[in-house]
Write a structure and sequence with these properties.
The protein is of the alpha/beta class. It folds into 2 domains: 2-120 and 305-359, Rossmann fold; 131-304, Rossmann fold, CATH 3.40.50.720. The protein is built from 13 helices and 15 strands. Helix 6 (131-148) runs parallel beside helix 7 (178-190) and helix 10 (306-327) packs across helix 11. The longest helix is centred in the last third of the chain and has 22 residues, at 306-327. It is globular, with a radius of gyration of 21 Å.
Length: 367
């Protein structure tokens, strides 16, 4: 199969769809790989690194799309790429369709085979291709939240770990999934007081077992959210509905309850956000302030640490890329139920119920 690795052109996205090590695996299996010049530079990989393992370098993103049977990338195609996606071309990437009708309609119109990293699902319900980026984003949420709590960044001026004689900052984590666990771990490591909310008691029991005593758990409902937003300095939104839009757990009126200069990091923003006042931002312009509350809503947080993120991503995507390349998408998805769940749009038809529900489409066909 001919596989293309284009350069990511989303704002400040420095990750790349595959490392040279991953390309080597594909080439050794007899596949042809085209990499756009400069695609790996943001992650620390030169064109020469890719050439050494057998990749062919192309000058433009249009050339990569035009020649490839399968496109492997990191983020969803943006408007400039819509017209480059071809009929029957496999596009394997993070799509998060439920947060963008424009993207969904564009990919339907392209008649491509859209397989989303974020909905590939193991039999135990885990999301193997989303997990490493959720781990990165969860840890980064505390890094960024701590920074934007500083007064020069318009924050409240709170040091999360406190100092002797001064209590630590308070962190509220919404969701005890991968993002939430990693955020709580980082915040606890800094010495902050952490409250983590979820509706899944099994997850809360797990958190209670593995976290130190200054991480406390509580069942998530509107009453408890309203209670805690009034007393916490940093709020991390880490909820996930597989393939669908995130629920709005923090409403506009709740901002009035919060301390001036409190910070919200909405990690769920790429799925529509779990805060009513959220909208996607970029690393170039990451925050905005509403009702004196700082909102950090970067939709591609792991893009800020591309070396770590690209290695972590290729570790988990490569086996699926190899399967798709070796067998073709139909046989690969038929043989692998986990990969089959990654199918989102097939030749213009929405085949994932999360997208269908988000936009009122009919789910017409699945493999």
């Amino acid at each position: 199969m001919v596989i293309g690795i284009p350069k990511e052109i989303k704002n400040n996205e420095s990750r790349v769809g595959m490392t040279p090590a991953g390309v080597l695996e594909l080439v050794q299996k007899g596949h042809t790989v085209y990499v756009q010049t400069g695609a790996g530079l943001g992650s620390g990989f030169t064109d020469g690194d890719y050439k050494k393992v057998g990749a062919h370098i192309l000058d433009t993103i249009g050339q990569v799309y035009a020649i490839s049977e399968m496109i492997v990338k990191v983020k969803e195609p943006i408007a400039e790429e819509y017209g480059m996606v071809q009929k029957n071309q496999i596009v394997f990437t993070y799509f998060h369709f439920a947060s963008s009708l424009q993207l969904t309609e564009a990919m339907m119109e392209s008649k491509a085979i859209c397989i989303a990293y974020e909905t590939v699902e193991e039999s135990d319900g885990s999301l193997p291709l989303l997990t490493p980026m959720s781990e990165v984003a969860g840890r980064m949420a505390i890094q960024q939240g701590a920074k934007y709590l500083e007064k020069p960044k318009k924050g409240r001026g709170v040091l999360l770990g406190g100092v002797p004689g001064v209590p630590p900052g308070r962190v509220l984590v919404l969701g005890a999934g991968v993002v939430g666990i990693q955020a709580a771990k980082m915040a606890a490591g800094l010495g902050a007081h952490v409250t983590i909310l979820d509706i899944n008691m099994k997850r809360l029991r797990y958190v209670n077992d593995v976290m130190p005593p200054h991480v406390v758990t509580e069942f998530s409902n509107e009453f408890n959210i309203r209670k805690h937003v009034a007393t916490h300095d940093l709020i991390v939104g880490g909820v996930l509905v597989k393939g669908g839009r995130a629920p709005k757990l923090i409403t506009r009126d709740m901002l009035k309850l919060m301390h001036p200069g409190a910070v919200i990091v909405d990690v769920a923003v790429d799925q529509g956000g779990c805060v009513e006042t959220s909208h996607p931002t970029t690393h170039e312009d990451p925050v905005f302030i509403i009702d004196d509350v700082v909102h950090y809503c970067v939709a591609n947080m792991p893009g800020a640490v591309p070396y770590t993120s690209t290695l972590a991503l290729t570790n988990v995507t490569l086996p699926y890329v190899l399967e798709l390349a070796d067998k073709g998408w139909e046989a690969a998805c038929a043989d692998n139920p986990c990969l089959n769940k990654g199918l989102n749009i097939i030749r213009g038809e929405v085949v994932h119920d999360g997208i269908a529900e988000a936009f009122g489409f009919d789910e017409k066909w699945v493999v």
